[in-house]
Design brief:
166 residues, five-stranded mixed beta sheet, three-stranded antiparallel beta sheet, 25% strand, globular
Length: 166
């Protein structure tokens, strides 16, 4: 893995073979979400609680300054739209303990994939994640409707959800 810090965006490149970038409306949901997710107390919960919701796959880490600055915006957005929208953290921290601390410190009200899990690595690969913070939006059927959720929430605010629904 190569990590490069450019301005306020953290860029990292992971070298994999035969990975295609997800295209909008590509159905990856079944492949991306594991059957269980973790809450801030490290309890395992079924990913079925995400049924019928738009899901933001949030690639982030505690060591990433731009991620830490975006967290309050994403928490506010999620809380205002929690009937239709949920977030799943896919953390880039070096250990499960560091990820749990990050979630607690920022009072993240959402679930997370297990840190460093195969499911987290597969999601990163399939979505061709090259920098963080990165927010991929899945519709309730698992189709990728946006790979630019961070910019959309910052530019459109609450209207971002409407743009994903259309």
């Amino acid at each position: 893995m190569l990590i490069v810090i450019v301005g306020t965006v953290v860029v990292f490149t992971v070298f994999f073979q035969n990975i295609e970038e997800a295209k909008p409306q590509e159905n990856l949901g079944a492949d991306l979400l594991p059957q269980t997710l973790l809450d801030t107390s490290d309890r395992k919960l079924s990913s079925s609680i995400l049924k019928d919701k738009y899901v933001g796959l949030y690639f982030s880490a505690s060591w990433c300054g731009p991620c830490r600055s975006f967290n309050p915006e994403l928490i506010k957005f999620r809380n205002q739209h929690q009937e239709k929208f949920e977030v799943v953290l896919i953390g880039g921290d070096g250990s499960p303990k560091a990820q749990a601390k990050y979630m607690k410190e920022y009072e993240m009200p959402w679930l997370a994939m297990e840190n460093q899990s195969d499911a987290a690595k597969i999601a990163s690969e399939k979505l061709n994640v090259q920098y963080i913070p990165y927010l991929v939006i899945l519709d309730p059927e698992g189709n990728v409707v946006s790979k630019d959720g961070v910019s959309e929430i910052r530019a459109k605010g609450n209207d971002a959800l409407n743009s994903w629904i259309q």
